[in-house]
Write a structure and sequence with these properties.
heterodimer, A: mainly alpha, 2 strands, B: alpha+beta, two-stranded antiparallel ribbon, two-stranded antiparallel sheet
Chain lengths: 140, 133
């Protein structure tokens, strides 16, 4: 379990950025296919994963941890490894050619993913700089 | 964290929309062409887009142009007996291109192109931020 001064938060942040990277890829694929007939948009299902996490976990602290997992692999019972799967959205109605990508939603999700990613990277950078300051005693 | 596949996805979107734009421009330029290179009346052309299927592990799809095919809808018949290509009843077959439809398609292609550019910029931005950690 990663709970050291560096491994704990830094590792979780790395995992969060990996998830954001995957989400960015899903969004890019939807935008590229905005005019492809009969294309069902892809989405990452965060809500059901979070619900499952909260229901199966016993330790309240465990609820927020991310662990290294293989994308798409179903976690074992009792583990709290969390990976949002990529699914096709076949329920949202589409345009006459069968395509159900909403460009506006994808652009908003893209902007949000980007903002969260840059926030995480800034926080990570800041924490690393603090650590360097501590290690060098302020003489860098 | 590997951004290059998704830059490839956005690049495929840019390519597809640009090809659509070219075909639309060709349709508009040939709205009155009664003799095309293959001898007949110019037919409106359509671009077939297909997405490469998402794989088992959730890999997302790029888009590719499957082909440029002629639109099978009927040609316009215009009554003009003095036209050199008029048939025995005086009707000339004109291309089945509706400029209004082409303009609307062009708007759609332009908007999609811009969206793909934004997605590409966003990927570049995320790479740059990751390097600044």
């Amino acid at each position: 379990m990663n709970t050291g001064p560096v491994e704990g938060w830094f590792y979780q942040m790395q995992k969060a950025m990996d998830v954001l990277d995957a989400q960015h890829r899903v969004i890019a694929g939807n935008i590229a296919n905005v005019n492809t007939p009969a294309f069902h948009k892809l989405q990452m299902d965060f809500k059901s994963e979070m619900t499952r996490l909260m229901e199966t976990s016993e330790n309240p602290r465990d609820k927020m941890e991310l662990r290294p997992v293989q994308r798409g692999v179903t976690p074992d019972e009792g583990s709290i490894e969390w990976v949002p799967a990529t699914t096709q959205d076949t329920t949202t109605p589409g345009r006459p050619d069968g395509n159900n990508v909403s460009l506006e939603k994808e652009m908003v999700d893209l902007a949000e993913t980007n903002e969260v990613f840059s926030t995480l990277s800034r926080v990570a950078g800041k924490n690393l700089r603090i650590m360097r300051y501590v290690i060098t005693g302020g003489r860098s | 964290m590997d951004f290059f596949p998704e830059m490839g996805i956005s690049a495929s979107g840019l390519n597809a929309e640009r090809i659509r734009q070219e075909v639309i421009a060709r349709n508009i330029a040939n709205v009155n062409t009664t003799k095309s290179s293959d001898g007949g009346v110019f037919r409106r052309q359509l671009v077939e887009l297909v997405s490469q299927d998402a794989g088992e592990d959730g890999e997302v799809s790029a888009v590719s142009v499957a082909g440029v095919v002629p639109d099978p809808s009927p040609l316009r018949q215009v009554y003009d007996p003095s036209h050199p290509d008029a048939d025995e009843k005086g009707f000339v077959s004109k291309p089945n291109v509706d400029v209004m439809m082409e303009m609307v398609d062009m708007l759609g292609a332009t908007r999609a192109y811009q969206a793909n550019v934004t997605a590409l910029q966003s990927a570049k931005d995320m790479i740059r931020r990751a390097l600044e950690i």
